[in-house]
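Supplementary Methods. Inverse-folding protocol.

Structures were first reduced to a discrete structure-token string of length 478. This string, shown here, constituted the complete conditioning input.
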């Protein structure tokens, strides 16, 4: 058999196995795993490297409306370029329905933004902000059949959040159609009350963003969302968990027999609320929601990763420029934390941070790394086994990792649209030195070789219902 490409001499790592094998690729797919494959148009020597499935980042915001006068720093070109630099072969971005807009109208807008502009493969989650009878009764069921099989609802942000009855109605539609619902859990009424208190006391600096979004507001909303999932009897994903209290709500729900997936992010492992209290307005760089917490919360999130409470490790990449009147330092944001755009860049740094802090420091093994950064995302969001593994028949989405490569993170090397990274100066060990997307090299040593090859991916329904691991408190790669 002749191959388009053979990757030789590498150590292949999946969510369940580690083995030495050559990888034969033809027509964008893996067609052989065996020793001494040679008959190929291109041979890549992976001696000393780990051959991993390309990362799948299932929580990415790109080119999204962000309020009057505010512009997100990354479009699909720059955002997927940065994703590729960091070893990701697929990103799942959000298609934001605006009030009064149909879901199909929103999809038309986002497809126009993405088509022909992506360096890696992409797919969309639908954000439901206006769950009318037509949206829930007609549009959403039809779109799930068309391969848009996941959606997100917010319990915070005025203009985005849904009332409790609207969340229940959306969950009921998900139950009937087989869609999977992601929930941003924070209690908006509590947050607005605390903002009012802070305004009375003229506490308006960036650091007060964190104190108006306390752990209790996240814990309560998490409990409420999980209760709704129990009432409707539907699976759910609790996204960007930042602390032990919310994490334990997920653990208890699973012990009750609910099918719940949990997600955390790099900012909750690496940052704390103290970062929002830097001199001047530099703390605005770290404003995101939920906010970073404290060292004890960092330790809890690591525990959640190690013990399998968190099935997903995502970036929640939501980039804004810092020194920009359309970004963090807009005129109102300079005067009041509530007008600082919520979100930080991180799609390129997600994998190197977890590889360095998790694998290289012995917190997790390579198989677990693959599971929570790629395989579980593919399984949960209906892309497995086409994506998320190295197996015969799967797409040849492959990242070659050098565990000896040491890199100091700087904004320049990440190639996103933001003018800063919250991890500036962090030293990491382990880097994806080459990325293939459907068999074609897109990145080599942080240089884009063949851009614009990304394609939109329609998806199947989630297999969370069949994933007994999510009920048994085991990692989702079981």
């Amino acid at each position: 058999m002749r191959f388009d490409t053979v990757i030789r001499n590498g150590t292949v790592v999946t969510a369940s196995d580690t083995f030495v094998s050559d990888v034969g690729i033809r027509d964008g797919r893996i067609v052989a795993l065996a020793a001494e494959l040679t008959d190929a148009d291109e041979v890549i020597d992976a001696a000393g490297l780990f051959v991993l499935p390309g990362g799948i980042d299932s929580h990415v915001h790109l080119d999204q409306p962000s309020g009057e006068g505010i512009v997100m720093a990354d479009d699909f070109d720059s955002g997927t370029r940065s994703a590729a630099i960091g070893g990701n072969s697929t990103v799942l971005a959000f298609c934001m329905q605006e009030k009064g807009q149909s879901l199909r109208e929103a999809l038309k807008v986002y497809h126009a933004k993405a088509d022909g502009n992506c360096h890696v493969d992409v797919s969309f989650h639908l954000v439901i902000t206006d769950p009318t009878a037509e949206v829930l009764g007609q549009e959403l069921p039809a779109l799930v059949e068309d391969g848009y099989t996941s959606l997100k609802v917010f319990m915070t942000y005025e203009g985005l959040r849904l009332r409790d009855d609207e969340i229940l109605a959306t969950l009921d539609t998900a139950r009937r159609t087989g869609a999977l619902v992601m929930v941003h859990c924070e209690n908006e009424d509590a947050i607005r009350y605390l903002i009012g208190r802070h305004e009375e006391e003229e506490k308006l600096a960036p650091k007060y963003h964190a104190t108006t979004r306390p752990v209790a507001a996240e814990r309560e909303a998490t409990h409420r969302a999980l209760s709704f999932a129990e009432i409707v009897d539907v699976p759910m994903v609790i996204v960007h968990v930042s602390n032990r209290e919310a994490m334990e709500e997920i653990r208890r729900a699973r012990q009750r027999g609910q099918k719940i997936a949990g997600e955390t992010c790099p900012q909750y492992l690496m940052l704390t609320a103290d970062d929002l209290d830097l001199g001047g307005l530099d703390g605005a760089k770290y404003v995101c929601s939920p906010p970073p917490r404290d060292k004890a919360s960092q330790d809890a999130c690591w525990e959640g990763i190690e013990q399998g409470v968190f099935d997903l490790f995502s970036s929640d990449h939501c980039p804004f420029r810092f020194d920009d009147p359309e970004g963090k330092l807009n005129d109102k944001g300079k005067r009041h934390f509530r007008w600082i755009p919520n979100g930080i860049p991180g799609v390129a740094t997600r994998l190197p941070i977890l590889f360095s802090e998790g694998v290289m420091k012995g917190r997790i093994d390579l198989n677990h790394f693959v599971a929570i950064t790629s395989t579980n995302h593919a399984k949960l969001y209906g892309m497995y086994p086409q994506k998320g593994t190295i197996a015969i028949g799967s797409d040849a989405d492959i990242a070659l990792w050098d565990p000896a490569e040491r890199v100091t993170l700087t904004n320049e090397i990440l190639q996103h649209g933001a003018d800063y990274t919250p991890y500036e100066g962090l030293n990491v060990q382990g880097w994806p030195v080459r990325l293939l997307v459907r068999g074609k090299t897109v990145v080599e040593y942080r240089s884009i070789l063949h851009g614009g090859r990304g394609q939109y991916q329609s998806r199947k329904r989630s297999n969370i219902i069949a994933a007994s691991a999510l009920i048994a408190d085991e990692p989702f790669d079981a």
